[in-house]
Automatic annotation (TrEMBL):
Domain VOC: 11-136
A Pfam family reported for this protein in Swiss-Prot or TrEMBL: Glyoxalase
Name recorded for this polypeptide: VOC family protein
Organism: Bradyrhizobium rifense
Domain of life: Bacteria
Signal sequence, renumbered to the chain: none
């Protein structure tokens, strides 16, 4: 008789982005207001407190090698992943988009009413990683900087 394994506790703890120029990317995320942690890593890797999962930055080629994936060709188009910056109001969405663009982000899509009753727009970081800036029904942003989902 086989012993049934207890499933591990699922958790998403770090989102690591492969970047072309870590110095530029560190400066960009600091300019957006994310708090850098573990600065002793220098420019080998960078970690930021986001109020939820940690955001990591790692040189693209080294991240690919670490995961045993090909570094080339790098996709120049959508990679099937977006990051989200949830907001409490439509005005906050507009302010975040303007702020990010002012810090060097590329505006991908201006803020607009969504078909699900929300309001969102998109910007891209220096490596083209897309961020949705959004206020959405059923998703509340708490004072703890975390999102709280309706049941």
């Amino acid at each position: 008789m086989s012993k049934e394994l207890t499933p591990p506790v699922p958790r998403l703890t770090v989102i690591t982005l492969g970047v072309s120029d870590i110095r530029t990317s560190i400066a960009f995320y600091v300019a957006l207001g994310f708090s850098r942690r573990l600065k002793a890593t220098g420019e080998a890797v960078a970690f930021f407190d986001t109020g939820g999962p940690v955001l990591g930055l790692f040189p693209w080629d080294q991240l690919a090698a670490d995961a045993k994936l090909a570094d080339q060709p790098r996709p120049a188009t959508f990679r099937g992943v977006t990051l989200a910056w949830n907001c409490a109001t439509r005005e906050e969405v507009d302010a975040v988009l303007a702020f990010a663009v002012g810090k060097g982000a590329a505006l991908l899509k201006a803020a607009h009413e969504t078909d699900y009753g929300g309001y969102s727009g998109y910007f891209a970081d220096p490596d083209g990683h897309p961020w949705e800036v959004v206020v959405a029904p059923g998703i509340e942003v708490g004072n703890d900087r975390r999102v709280h989902l309706a049941e």
